[in-house]
Structure formats: structure tokens, C-alpha cells
Amino acid sequence: MNSWNGWDLPFFDERHGALKERLQEWMVVNEREEGVVEKLPLAEQCDHYVKQLAAMGFLELAVANPADPTAYLDVRSICLVREALSYRNALADFAFSMQGLGTAAIALFGTPAQRDRYLGPCRQGLSKPAIAITEPEGGSDVAATRTRAERRGDRYVLNGEKCWISNGGIANHYIILARTGEAEGAKGISAFIVDADTPGFRTGPNLDIIAPHPLSEVFLEDVEVAADQMLGQPGEGFKAAMATFDIFRSSVGAAAVGLGRRAIDETVHRMQNRMLFGKPMSENDMVRARVADMVTDLEAAALTVYRAGWLRDVRRVNVTREAAMAKLTGTEAGQRILDSAVQLFGATGLKIGNVIERMYRDIRPMRIYEGASEVQRIIIGRRTLATPQREGKAS
Ligand SMILES: Cc1cc2nc3c(=O)[nH]c(=O)nc-3n(C[C@H](O)[C@H](O)[C@H](O)COP(=O)(O)OP(=O)(O)OC[C@H]3O[C@@H](n4cnc5c(N)ncnc54)[C@H](O)[C@@H]3O)c2cc1C
Acyl-CoA oxidase/dehydrogenase middle domain: from which residue to which, for each copy (predicted)? Predict the structure, then answer.
């Protein structure tokens, strides 16, 4: 099934129209190659998608141009690409998003030398990045980071452990958050760029989860890096990570919208063709009501996602709250839609290898990574309640 054509929303301009056409071209290429690619080992599949997306010019949308001092990334374009890729192939979406997630902090906080060294190769698909924040003691509480970086002369020595790191084992560099101790909590954490071949750095075996992709633990044992491998100023690591999320959280919602949209397209086709009690399922009012909920959920989620992108790209305002809304709304809606799709497909939707079964697994981690839904609610609630209201005005 291949009927993705973007959205007719007021949040887009001309270049997004052109991008939608290029994404449809990608779908044709992907449809041709997918059968062969999915037989390759996971790491080789990712390598294929990184190179393919670079060759087709899509990585330029995820990785900032090192020569551009504004480090401009258009969130609506990132969201459109992620939605289209995940509509067809979750691993292609993963490969695209990781190139951006593992470089955004370098684009925003890096020195010219760091930007030259790391952004260009990732943009060209010659190098793969990772960002390692989560630790075994609890990923949601980033301020409690235990990995330490100790200053020794003109170097830092890093010790600690990270877990659930996407691209772990295949990345060429890792952005590592480590405690440098300028202050308690979040303000005492700095970010470092650590090359994968640095002595003392190693990754564990691939962690198998329900939606397979390169994922591993990361171990740092007396890893020495030059002081100029620090990203931004001492104590700015948490800020660098959150700035990355302000760009990429909306795009998780977009990827979930892509999965939800494909699920609806597949469901409509199935309901029109599956005969039950002597007529197509599409003529059953309970089916119609469920499909109505699915499409309404999807369209509300898409509006929230692209509005967050538009606010950042066009209005240039802080979108921490809106990006959290986009991730929360997109992923929760995507999960509900996929669950309904499985229900309407019946046993067929549970069969290993069925597209609905695959997407039912693909959607699940999205409500956990880059901040679980509970964390998004806390961000939204905290920011809403911190906004002063004028006396006598309730809304
Ligand atoms: C597929 C995948 C890819 C990932 N990739 C990366 C990566 O590249 N880099 C990286 O650093 N990390 C990565 N992670 C880790 C991810 O960011 C963490 O899993 C996530 O932040 C949650 O942390 P945790 O798993 O330790 O759960 P915990 O922090 O132990 O939380 C468990 C659950 O508690 C609930 N919860 C959390 N906080 C609150 C709260 N304040 N109030 C109420 N309930 C709460 C949520 O339901 C949460 O799922 C990845 C995870 C997955 C699944």
C-alpha cells in the first residue's frame, strides 16, 4: 500500500510541497529495494538507509550545514520526512532520525572545529552518530546522571555506564552526558563528543527489543578525551540535550502519525474487502464508528505535530511545551490507532509478518523513548501552570 501524500495544512509552504514529491519518489525506490534490504543484518540495513537517504538529499534536512552559523533545521521538513519514512519503513525512519538526534547538539553548541569534523560526514551519510543520556539507574531522571568526567590538565577522564543507546555499536561518535560537578543536579552535567575508537570506550551486544534496531549499552572506563571535546560550556550538557529534544520531539509524534496513517489505509482496504455476515465490514456501523475514531485521532495528532513545527520554524518561539504536546498526542494516538487496527483485522493482525503486527510493535517504544508520556505531561503541565494569568481572567 502506498498512498501517502502529506497533508493539506496551512502550516506548510512551497518547499514542503516539493519535499512531499521527493518523498513519494523515495517510496517507489524503497518499495523496489525493501525486500532485499530486510534480509540483511540490522547494522547493514541501517547503513543502507543512511547512504540511500544521503544520496537522495534527505539527510541535509536532519543534519545542519556546518557552514551555517544559525544551525537552522526546519522542523516541519524533519516531521514530513519522518512521517513518510515510517509510513513505509520504521528502520529507514530510525536511520534518518538518528543522524539528526546525534548531531543537533553539535550544530547548536559545537565550536566551528567540532561542527566541521562531525556534521559534514553525518550529513553525507559517511558517519553515524549517537547520543547517550540514559543510565541504568533511571532514564527519566536525567538530572541524576552518574557518569563522571574528571578534569585532568587539558583532558577529561570519563567513567560510567549508559544503556538503551540507539545506534550503539554502529555509531562513529557518541555525545555523552557526564557529571562535571559545577552544581548539583542538571546544572552540573556537561556533554562530550567521544569517538567510538577512543581507548576505554566500548559497547555491549545488541539489545533485542520488540521493534528491532541497533541498540546497546555503552561502557566508559577511564576514557580520556581532550578538553576541546566538550560540547558547549561546562554545565551545559543538560541544556544541549533539551535543545535537541525541542527539535526532535515533535518528529517522534510525526513518525507515530506515519504509522497511524498506514494502519488506517490498511484498515480501510481490509474493511472494504473483508466480507462478514454477508456484507463488507465497511458497511457495519460499529466498524464505521471505530474507523471514525481512528481518523479523528490521526488528524488531531497531525495538527498538533505540524503546529509545533510551524511555531518553531516560523514564529521562532520556544516550543518545549508544544513539542511535548506533539510527541504525547502523536504517539498516544498512534498507539490507539494501531490497537484498533489489530482489533479490526482480527487474528490476521496478529500474524507475525503482517504489516499491522509489525507496526503494532513499532509504535510501542515511541511512548517511552525521548521522554515517556508521563514526562511529556509533566513538561506540559508545569509550563502551563507556571504561566501567570491576569486577575479575573479564567482562560
Ligand atoms: C527504543 C529505545 C531507544 C532509545 N534510545 C536512546 C538513546 O539513543 N539515547 C538515550 O540516552 N536513551 C535512549 N533510550 C532510553 C529512553 O530515553 C528511556 O528508556 C526513557 O527515558 C525512560 O527511562 P527508563 O527506561 O529508564 O524508565 P524509568 O525512568 O525507570 O521510568 C519507567 C516508567 O516510569 C514512568 N515515569 C517516568 N517518569 C515519571 C514521572 N515523573 N512520574 C510518573 N511516572 C513516570 C514512565 O511510564 C516510564 O516509562 C531509548 C529507549 C528505547 C526504548
Answer: 130-223
Say how many residues make up the chain. Answer: 395
Atom of ligand 1 nearest to the CA of 141: 29
Ligand 1 atom at shortest distance from the alpha carbon of 211 = 1
Question: DSSP code of 136?
Answer: T
pLDDT tens by residue, 305-331? 999 999 999 999 999 999 999 999 999
Active-site position among 21, 25, 370, 374: 370
pLDDT tens profile 336-390: 999 999 999 999 999 999 999 999 999 999 999 999 999 999 999 999 999 877 6
Pocket test for ligand 1, best of 133, 140, 362 (most atoms within 8 A of CB): 140
Given a contact cutoff of 8 angstroms between Cβ atoms, the answer to whether 213 and 189 are in contact is no
**Beta pairing, strands 148-152 & 155-166:** antiparallel
Q: Cell 539527510: give the residue.
A: 59
Whether the CB of 207 sits within 6 Å of ligand 1: no
Number of H helices, E strands in the chain: 12, 10
**Please, is 237 exposed, middle or buried when counting C-beta atoms within 10 Å of its C-beta (0-12, 13-18, 19+)?**
buried
**133 CB less than 6 Å from ligand 1?**
yes
| Residue of 253, 255, 262 whose CA lies nearest to 341 | 262
Judge if the beta carbon of residue 380 lies within 6 A of ligand 1.
no
pLDDT in tens, 6-29: 899 999 999 999 999 999 999 999
Q: Does ipTM exceed 0.90?
A: yes
**Is the C-beta atom of 168 inside 6 A of ligand 1?**
no
The CATH architecture assigned to 129-235 reads: Beta Barrel (2.40)
Single-letter code of the amino acid located at 97: S
Helix (H) or strand (E) holding 368: none
The alpha helices in 233-284, defined as continuous H runs, are 237-273
Class of domain 14-123: mainly alpha
Q: How far apart are CA 35 and CA 122, in angstroms?
A: 26
Please say whether the beta carbons of 161 and 217 come within 8 A.
yes
135 flagged as catalytic: no
Question: Residue ranges per domain, the chain?
Answer: 14-123, 129-235, 239-385
What class has domain 239-385? mainly alpha
Q: What is the DSSP string of 65-121?
A: -TT-TT----HHHHHHHHHHHHHH-HHHHHHHHHHHHTTHHHHHH--HHHHHHHHHH
